[in-house]
Amino acid sequence: MRLHVGCAMWTHKSWQGRFLAHPLPSHERLRHYAGWCNAVEGNTTFYATPARDTVASWARQTSADFRFVIKLPKVITHERRLTDTDEALHAFLTAIEPLGPRAHALWIQLPGSFTPADVPALARFLHRLTRSHRYAVEVRHPVFFNDPRAARLLEGALATVAAEWIPFDTTAFFRSPPSSDAEREAWTKKPRLPLRSLALTDRPIVRYLGRDAAERTIEGWQHWTDTVVEWLREGRSPTVFVHTPDNADAPLLARRFHDEVRVRVPELDALPQPIPTEPLTLF
User: How many folded domains does the chain comprise?
Assistant: First the structure.
């Protein structure tokens, strides 16, 4: 039983001198981030497959129990839509090999145009994948959330290879109008979908978007603290990524989420101690 928490990235301009020492060479920023959180979203791999040496550096900067949820490149998921992907997929899998067990799950984020009619293509793609990794799928078409038949179709395809369904919970964010520039930008870009909190495997993964105000982010995640506590008591090992529109306090918020869960599940392992910079508080 373990709870992993993290952010959408491991470096951010607003974190310099707060969560990460400053100045700090780029090849050491992940090590400092890993003092705050024990997981991270691998979003950069969506845009290009990284060099194997770069990935080896990620492994060197993190402990053996740190976890990456690594996104498949868009050439596989969005451009080729899961067909004729053997060459691109082989290059990607070769590149991320140095992570070893740190690669918690390979994240298949599908475009909003992916519909139930495309599920057979996903099923074929999943069955061709190596079983040396675990997989998690994110869909954004509303029909999967509003139509039980569509949800069951997708769940059936995922179940055959023990893949997880990643929800991106934006319900707290869209509860009231935006009040900052970052929130206004996110308002036009983030998916607006119903809440889903059903785990399919023993390693559920959640992406949660709060607000720039820390207290509103914390208020909005109360459903997830209850859900994660229940999952842990069932013997599952969840991973929760905390986002805000500006992500300015995301590492601190991720730790706060872990702390809230640990109060209710005291046997949960503590997070690592951050590399000191200066005292921080949320309020």
Answer: 1
Give the span between the Cα atoms of 73 and 183, in whole angstroms: 27
Nearest to 81 by CA among 117, 120, 45, 121: 121
- For 239, the 3-state DSSP assignment is strand
Handedness of CA 43, 20, 101, 56 (dihedral sign): positive
Boundaries of domain holding 227? 4-264
Place of tokens 């009231």: 176
> Which pLDDT does position 26 carry in this prediction?
86
Is residue 269 assigned to a domain?
no
C-alpha closest to that of 71 among 104, 101, 116: 104
Average pLDDT of the chain is 96
Q: Say if 208 falls within a structural domain.
A: yes
What are the tens digits of pLDDT across the range 236-254?
A: 999 999 999 999 999 999 9
Residue 185 lies in a domain: yes
Q: Is residue 272 part of a domain?
A: no
DSSP labels, 28-50: GHHHHHTTT-SEEEE-GGGTSPP
Q: Is 1 helix (H, G, I), strand (E, B) or coil?
A: coil
Q: Is the pLDDT of residue 255 over 60?
A: yes
52-60 and 86-96 are packed helices; what angle lies between their axes, rounded to 10 degrees? 30
> What are φ and ψ of residue 155, in 5° steps?
-60, -35
Other residues' Cβ atoms within 10 Å of the Cβ of residue 125: 22
How high is the pLDDT of residue 49? 97
pLDDT at 78: 97
Q: What are phi and psi of 25, to 5 degrees?
A: -60, 145
Peptide bond into 245 cis (omega under 30): no
What pTM was computed for the model?
0.96
C-beta separation of 34 from 61 below 8 A: yes
The CATH number of whichever domain residue 245 belongs to comes to 3.20.20.410
- Tell me, what DSSP letter sits at residue 189? H
Q: Is residue 96 a contact partner of residue 103, using CB atoms and an 8 Å limit?
A: yes
